[in-house]
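REQUEST
  id: r-88c1
  op: predict_structure
  target: HTH cro/C1-type domain-containing protein
  payload:
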Amino acid sequence: MTICERLFDELELRGLTAYGLAKVLGVHPTTISNWKQRNTDPPSKYIIAICGFIGCSIEYLLTGEDAGAPVVIKKEPVPGISENGREMLALYEKLSERDQLLLLGRLQEMASPMLGDSREKSQKDDARSVAG
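RESPONSE
  id: r-88c1
  status: 200
  body:
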């Protein structure tokens, strides 16, 4: 099995996308799809980042063997989480704690109009039950 074949097998096995990998590597998604279509191995400058994204050792990606390497726990897709959700989580985990908190704050801002309606209704219902 080639490096390219192992790479795409691992992406599929772990529920990761070529698009997510392209974002992490800072390349256009067609670059990743070209590797797959042409069955060409990625340039060596991307190997470390690829292994970090898919969660395997460099030795495994290059040779298919992991003798003496630390055990890598394979992440199984969580039922009920969409492909976009898994990709978001994988990217989120690569952020610093500060950036994670900033992102959470931004997500809360974006979701507040949707959550605000139900929260306001719940608060009004609570106020009515206390008054009534």
